[in-house]
Amino acid sequence: PDIIYRIVDCLVNVFSCHGYAITTIEGIGSKKKGYHPVQARLAQFNGTQCGYCSPGMVMNMYSLLEGKQVTMKDVENSFGGNICRCTGYRPILDAFKSLAVDSSEDLRKKVPDIEEMHKVKICERNGKICTGNCSVDDGHNGESHNKNLLAQANAPVHIKLAKDVDWYKVTTLQDIFEIFDKINDAPYRLVAGNTGQGVYRIEEDIRYFIDIGSVGELKTTKMEPNLVVGAGMSLTETMEMFYTLSAENSKFAYTKVLADHIDLIANVPVRNIGTIAGNLCMKNNHNEFPSDMFLMLETVGATINIAEEGNKIVKMSLLSFLDLDLKHKVIHSINLPELDSSYHVRTFKIMPRAQNAHAYVNAGFLFKLKINENGKVLTKPTIVFGGINPEFVHASNTESYINGKNLFDRKVLKTAMKILDAELQLDHVLPDASPAYRKSLAEALFYK
């Protein structure tokens, strides 16, 4: 089946689009051809004004409507990556919420007959408003044409971008290591979603770009009995898989907590193409980066698999990964353990706005508790913070103190807070919030 998703066009390399079928605002409707209902609805609710943000808003909603029943909550959660400086968002949200299956009666009353108000495309087959779902007859035999396009899209590619710059698209791990052998010590960059460029700018002297977005081995998920998640999976794919798994397997019920946290990372278009490996690579290269993926995985005791030359897969802890030189290595997959109901997982992210922002402070907690014994901590807990300083990961002293004690004892909690206060040594790098504020956040999250 086709996979339809929104992307941020300013972050996606043109050469990564090989194999994509791209639809832009001009492709869904115009004054000449007739407007798509999403376009007409936005105009009718006075959501266009200066118009600069309108194409992005419309295409975001258009793809959101593809193949699913959209609720008003879905609409609210899907526009964190779109900026409007005119309308204050209310007319835009109202317009798109009116298209939701659970739209309020007040919104529906505001919708006139848009066929009369605007030149809306009418389907030639059924005489109803066009939904944009009909395939275009381009003169090709559909099935054979699609197979040919698919074969071309999945084939390796080598493009000479400049005298000293090459672009490779690969489809297997072996392809990657063959290129590594060929380029020796020349500077290179592995490319998947390329969303990290929105955080840290790309180096100027890269000579080889290797597109690994089509390497199937990096997108495989399996049970062994631990859960092995391909590091090339997008954050959206990972989030959806976690929601499904948490409902089906009690040993992985905690993955719902992880999925809820992933929903706080960046915005929908970024999560659609940004990968687990890409997020972890940024943490490896920039230890100060408050990576939510690293924090969540370290909280639950996950380990990481690194592919090396000679078909070697090396398993290591995430803490060891932080110091690993990734040259001529590939992040292959992540191992997540089974956790029974005695384990309690909580993660938090405090950020300046509800969507599309880095954390001031993020935190993860894993406690194995005996609830009927006043919350006795049965094993050494995990207490992880991000946004403290580049070297800080675990509140190790606090973890050691709490082990074996009753968590709900006020004296224990008071002492634990003092120990935590002493080991939280925050740096101050503008434009980060002040150390005092971030420290108070971290302590409040532990208390919570």
UniProtKB/TrEMBL annotation:
Protein name: FAD-binding PCMH-type domain-containing protein
Keyword set, alphabetical order: FAD, Flavoprotein, Peroxisome
SUPFAM superfamilies cross-referenced by the UniProt entry: CO dehydrogenase flavoprotein C-terminal domain-like, CO dehydrogenase ISP C-domain like, FAD-binding/transporter-associated domain-like
One MF annotation (Gene Ontology) recorded for this entry: iron ion binding
Family matches, as InterPro entries: 2Fe-2S-bd (IPR002888), 2Fe-2S-bd_dom_sf (IPR036884), Ald_Oxase/xanthine_DH-like (IPR016208), CO_DH_flav_C (IPR005107), CO_DH_flav_C_dom_sf (IPR036683), FAD-bd_PCMH (IPR016166), FAD-bd_PCMH-like_sf (IPR036318), FAD-bd_PCMH_sub2 (IPR016169)
Gene3D superfamilies the UniProt entry points to: 3.30.465.10, [2Fe-2S]-binding domain (1.10.150.120), CO dehydrogenase flavoprotein, C-terminal domain (3.30.390.50)
Oligomer and partners: Homodimer.
Chain ranges of the FAD-binding PCMH-type domain: 160-341
GO CC terms, sorted: peroxisome
Protein location: Peroxisome
